[in-house]
Structure formats: structure tokens, C-alpha cells
Amino acid sequence: MTAQTASPPDLVLFNGRITTLDRAAPEACAIAIRDGRFVAVGSDRDVIALAGPQTRRIDLRGRRAIPGLIDSHMHIIRGGLNYNMELRWDGVRSLEQAMRMLKDQVDRTPAPQWVRVVGGFTEHQFAEKRLPTLDEINAVAPDTPVFILHLYDRALLNGAALRAVGYGKDTPAPPGGEIARDGAGNPTGLLVARPNATILYATLAKGPKLPPEYQKNSSRHFMREVNRLGVTSVIDAGGGFQNYPEDYSIIEELHRDGQLTVRIAYNLFTQKPKEELKDFSTWAGQVKPGQGDDTYRANGAGEMLVYSAADFEDFKVERPEMPPTMEGDLEPVVRLLAEKRWPWRLHATYDETISRALDVFERVNRDVPFDGLHWFFDHAETIDDRNIDRIAALGGGIAVQHRMAFQGEDFVARYGERAAERTPPVRRMLAAGLPVGAGTDATRVASYNPWVSLAWLVTGRTLGGLALYPAANRLDRETALRLWTEGNTWFSTEPGKKGRVEAGQLADLAVLSDDFFAVPEDAIQDITSVLTLLGGTPVHGDKEFSDLAPPLPPAMPDWSPVRRFGGYQMRAGAEGARPYAFSSEGAGAVTAAAAGACGCATGCGVHGHAHASAWGAGVPVSDARAFWGVLGCSCWAF
């Protein structure tokens, strides 16, 4: 037994199968917690013997427990402000089911509010392998504005939404996207991200916003939703329309009130093209990395450092070529960050972008040595071996996300199966000794469900069932879990503080609905948490632990999709599934158990475990680089 205790613990958990990720003692049956930290890890007999009269005891009933999951790339602050307004198609496995949910929400949404489906899904996850048509959307929503965002490639607006945002025949073509039009020049409702996603998010920003009290409620519900999936920490990657300090006021108020149920380390994301250096110079005088506490703290800069270095990751279109100004724009910002000892992260999808950024980093490092500064690239789907080694030589890392689980079919269609086999080459990164962490890039480009990411890392398959990776680029389950726990602590400069079940570390824990190490590969994505602890305090409880976590107030407003559907839609048959039954009129039935546990309505299960056959397409080239184009890009809306 490992122990750091001189007085009785506050809490003892026993009769479990605990994966500690401590290499010296990888498995345990029981743990003791005091003052928010693990103080003993070992056998039932040894740990229970430490309990005193006031110690609370929880029987884990043989369930698997793991360290609380850490998402190294999520937009949780922005996502929380909007969560209660959004109908989530995350996890829905048929377009038929998605459209029934849409119709139900349209019927309950009062004017002038919108119904929004803002990312987190892909057409490839649907059995029908397609998006709804504009005619289908208009048929279920003739009067209520509907905005549906699909990844970063397009948005679908019904006629009511076009009227609400003021797009008509005389609306000029925007510089950052395309408004599709019919033969008479009228907008059809399709917005296309070409060359970047500016049109999508500028349009979304025209919709109504929640008032501050509702935003607080919304943020709490979103945190509880990720707690339900075992997430206890997030590194927030900033985002478009997420200004500092204005858009951080809600999360900071929740922190002051002791209502955060997720540890957040936040990055600052520049908002003004051509004024990036001014932004970071200002922020360097306002906040310092590490400022805060173990629950809410500043982390550094990015993922946007300069707009001219942001390559757009829509694999339906050609690779964007970064403008010639990229290096000149990026260097002064990186130089400032290195001088101020600010860690940074940089969005980079393609190897070509990474090469040019590394030229800048190496030049700055010669003058201002990085010397242990935690900096890293996000995404890196097409990075090559040479650039992996260059990052290692500079002491950097790579945070990977499961975007290919959502867009793998599109990548294969454009570049071919061989090119997709290392997208990204995670095993090669680990072999090079790089710090590698995992995350989701939720809520818009992918789902926030960590188990979808873990399934992708282990199986190498997309949500549509396409096998992307050979065994040489897939991970075993323990390695994948380490990327979601202790591996991610490097990216918030917190190694040794959390990420393992070990005496002295923060007592963040997830007790699982199913054993991650025993379920079939196809069932990994269905895992949830039945008990989530943050610093030893229950923040989510389900099944036999449903009475341990405090209930939330109902989702606000009363027409919120969260009240009816919850968030991620579990597949039918999964232990964590929250059934949503439709009547012939399309109305939903709510299960009381989930409503009582989280204060919101339940979600729906859809269409079981049936998988459509792997989708594929022939491509005219064998060399991806020969097919890449030279579109300029200044995408900001990550």
C-alpha cells in the first residue's frame, strides 16, 4: 500500500478494481481521500483500517475505476455559455431520429428563439450517410429559425433563419465564405465554408443569446454533462467570439461561488487579425500563466496566435496554403511569449503549416531559449517524421484530437487510404519521446464524449465504421488511457499533481459503467461514469450512486433542449443509455431517474449497435501533396 496519512481520511472507497496508472502499483482495490487528495491506495483490508468514526465509506461493488479524465483541448467556456440553447446530435445514429428530435424541439421553441444544432456530429455517423435537405428542414420548421452546423464545412438554415439574419437576394457575397443561391439569385439556406468558416460563425453570432443567469445555469449543466462521462479537468483552448476578460466573467463567477465541477486551465485566443501582438502584450500585463488555483487557472496563449498561421481543417476542400506574411506575423508573437515565459499552443492541421511554424520557433529559440517552456501543436494530422523530431529537439509536445473519427471518410476521398494511415501518427510521436495528450476539440468540430476519442485511439475507426489505421498506428487501451490522464498534465504544466490514483495527487476519479479493459472494442464508445469525484467530492452519480451527487436546478430556459434530450445521445443497449421514446405525434417521454440525477430531461437511444458498411471512395492520386491547392485562409472560429 502507498500512503500519506497521519489522521483518518474523509472518504474511503473499497471493493473496486482501480486502475491507478502508477507503474509501481498499477492495480488497487481501495483508496482513501483526505482534504481533496488521495492519501492511501491499496487493498481493502489496509485502506479500510485507516477509517475513523467520521470517515465516509463507499462500496464500489466491483466496478472499474480510473483517474478522472482530462481533455487537453475543449472549448468548454464558450460551450457552457451556449449549451442550454443547443440541440445535440452527438451520438445520434440515424438522420430519421435526428429529424424527429428537431421537429420536437421546433414545436417547443418560442419566437423569436432559434433551434440550433451546433456541431459535434458528422453525416457519416447516420445510417443514411447524409445530411438533411433544406426542403426537409423547412418542412418541419416553416416558421422557427433553424441553424444546423456540420463540422467546419457548412451550415444549413431554413427560410425563417435566413429572414432572421437578413440574408436575401441583395446580400453581397461575404469575404470569408459562400452563400449558396438558386437560379434567381436568392439564398438557398446553404452556407459553405470556402475558404474558411467565417461565414458560419458570423451568422451564428446573429442569434439570440442567453442572459447571464441562464448562462451560469447552462455552464453548470454542461460541466455536469462531461462529469457524466468521467471528465474532471479541461484545458480550454479559447475560441472565436471568446474575448478575455469579458466572456470569462460567467465561469469566473461560478469559480468564486464554488460551483465548478471541472478543473479548468484556460488559454487566451487572440480575437483581432493584425492586432495579435497587441492582444498578447496587453494580456501579459493582466494575467500570468499558473495564476489561479487547482480548479481555475491561466494556462498560456493560443490556440490562435496569429490569424495568418491558422490552417482550416475541412477535408472536403483543398489544403489551404498559409499566406507569405505568416512567418513575419508569427515571430514577434512567439518572441514575446518566450520572453514572458508564457506557454503556448498553436492550431496546425497540416505538415506544411507545421514546417513553417517550426522555422519561426527555431529562430526565436536561438535568441530566447525555450528551456523547458511547455509549448505544443494542436491536431497535427499530417505531420511527418522530420517535423516530429524537430518538435522533440525544441522540447515541445503535440495534443491530438479525434477529428478524423468525424472526417476520416472525407480525408480518404480526397487523399486516399494510404495517406490516412498516419493521421495523426500517434505511435511515432510517442516513440520520439514527445509529450502527447488527447482531447476532443469539442463542442463544434467534434463531440465532447471522451469515450469516442478513446475508441478511435484503440480501434482506428471512424464513427461511420471506416477502418483508418493499421495496427502500427493504433494504441493499446492502457496507453490510450494515459493520453487522457497523466499524459495531459504536461499540457497544463501540472505533471505529478493529477492524472494518476496515487497518494499525494488530487483525488479526481471516475467509476465506470463498464470495464474499459474488458468490454469489446465496439462498446468502448458507450462507457459512461456512474460516480465522478472531483477532489474527493461527488460531482456526478448514477445507478447505485445516484444519490451521492447534489442535484442541479432544471435547465434554463424551460424550452431548453437539455430538459428534453440531455446531451450526448447514447446508443440503445448501452448501460449509460437514457431512453427517449417518441409517440406517433413526435412528443418525448422523459425518464425520471436521469432527470432526478442531473436536473434535466433525458436523451434518446438510437438504433442499437448496427453499423453501416465501411464507406470508401476512389481517388485520382496516390500522392496527397500533388492534390493540395493554394487557397488562402484566415480562419478564426475554432
Give a quick rundown of the structure.
By secondary structure, this protein is an alpha/beta fold. Residues 58-540 form the Amidohydrolase domain.
Q: Could you list the spans in which at least 5 consecutive residues all have pLDDT below 50?
A: 579-638
Q: How many helices in DSSP terms?
A: 19
Oligomer: single chain
Q: How far is the first residue's CA from the last residue's CA?
A: 45 Å
Estimate the helix proportion, in percent: 25-40%
Major sheet size, sense and barrel closure: 6 strands, mixed
Number of strands: 26
**Integer average pLDDT:** 90
Strand order of the largest sheet: 4-3-8-22-23-24
What would you call the structural class?
Answer: alpha/beta
Sheet-strand content, in percent, reads 15-25%
Name the shape in a single word.
globular
CA radius of gyration is 24 Å
General description of the model:
By secondary structure, the protein is of the alpha/beta class. Helix content is 27%, strand content 18%. It has a 6-stranded mixed sheet, covered by helices on one side. β23 (529-534) and β24 form a beta hairpin. α2 (76-82) crosses α7 and α9 packs parallel to α10 (326-340).
